[in-house]
Amino acid sequence: MIKERKEDITTEQKILQAAKEVFTEKGLDGARMQDIADKAGINKALLHYYFRSKEKLFDVIFVEEARKFMPKLVEIMKSDMDLFEKIEKFVAEYISTLMQNPLLPIFILSEINRNPKETLKKILGNQRPPLEIVDEHLAKLAKKGVIKPIKAEQLMLNMVSLCIFPFIGRPMIQWIMKKNDKEFLAMMEERKVNVVKFITDSIRK
Amino acid sequence: MIKERKEDITTEQKILQAAKEVFTEKGLDGARMQDIADKAGINKALLHYYFRSKEKLFDVIFVEEARKFMPKLVEIMKSDMDLFEKIEKFVAEYISTLMQNPLLPIFILSEINRNPKETLKKILGNQRPPLEIVDEHLAKLAKKGVIKPIKAEQLMLNMVSLCIFPFIGRPMIQWIMKKNDKEFLAMMEERKVNVVKFITDSIRK
DNA sequence: GTCTATATTCCGATAGAC
DNA sequence: GTCTATCGGAATATAGAC
Asked: Which of A24, B11, B23, B71 could form a cystine bridge with A103, CB 3.0-4.6 A?
């Protein structure tokens, strides 16, 4: 933050990396500054030197992770792709993101639940997916007889649910299905196809 | 716990009720004994008198809530109902349960994520849904041409995802869709039908 | 910038009177 | 059983040397 030479960038980076790991795993309340310091290979005082307080450090991590978590539903849905292409693109991309950041959903959604208003204002502001546009789009396709009638709200909620939930329920799912980490990820990889098929089979006429 | 006369049952009850509210809202780490005491209208010392420690009190709440959370997938799936009836029954019953306990999923799944092994052993043991039976069942129906081929694993994961996720993402969903609590619950009520339709439309041939 | 040592705050838990 | 007062530890945060 103050030193600027090449090798020294790494201290702040190391802190951020360590903080990300500890916070995503334990949440704000469960995380310990000591653990973050240990993982970063430095000591507690230095954390405060760089970020003043636990809350401030947490905020940096949180908004960064929240950005990753928010699906690009808006952009994808507004593009001029075919509906079925949109669904395929969204599901595949989003599941890929989550496979690389498996703890993201439970981390973000837990924190939102603990402190909804503040948190949501911070990360969403007034962003909203273009439900009306998608609704028109769906209505048109339904009229043409290409798909069954469905509300954008419901369709998008279903898409998101099918992508995100397995990661939130991951430990339980692995336990019940007796899968190790590798097998779970393989299942998620398969799911990219399965979920798309599940959705399109449902809405297609 | 010690006194047995009628009016006095309420102290322990009051504690349990207060503890349930605070723990489900804040989680183990975020909950404060002081808040529980305040909400129960007693003082901290009395909490310890009744439950010895925060952890012990938490455990009581947790196993009680976990039982509610675990869907009766096993029983329903093993019954001799028609597949589509099973799906309908499961979805409607489960969404009803969650509407009455909206914080249940995020509470249980957060705690599982913080401490997977211990927690899962405690609440699940060796319980597992009869995936093989359902798989056979699904294979038979697929052969008859009633449904498209699908793995039990995927079907059940999809069912559970579609029911649970909206409650986990509730604050975010309400924010994005500009719905108040009443409107959200109305949407979940509608969803009982919508989700069943979504699933059956997908697998039916 | 980085460390050691220490201050400060908070919170779970206990002692002891009633 | 219930309360007030207090202890003791843990965790965040700061002071100050290097």
From this structure: A24
